[in-house]
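Sample pair:
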Amino acid sequence: MKNSEELRLFPPSKDEIIQKYISKYSLPEFANIYISQILEGKRSENSLICCHGGCEVCNDTIINCLDDIKKELESKNAL
């Protein structure tokens, strides 16, 4: 049986891909805006530095999420 992504008429949008990975990494909703700003070049990716301080929302988790989003967007040529 085909998965739901194969049954779609149109590929997922950039926003849908971002939301998928935010859910996968259990990030809060504000991460959506933060990641979108990085992808649009409005915020520097260099601002995501893990301080190893045990932050509630670790920048390392956001970096990993962002990397997965970039990989999927590049594979779909949507970046």
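The two ends are 29 Å apart (CA to CA).
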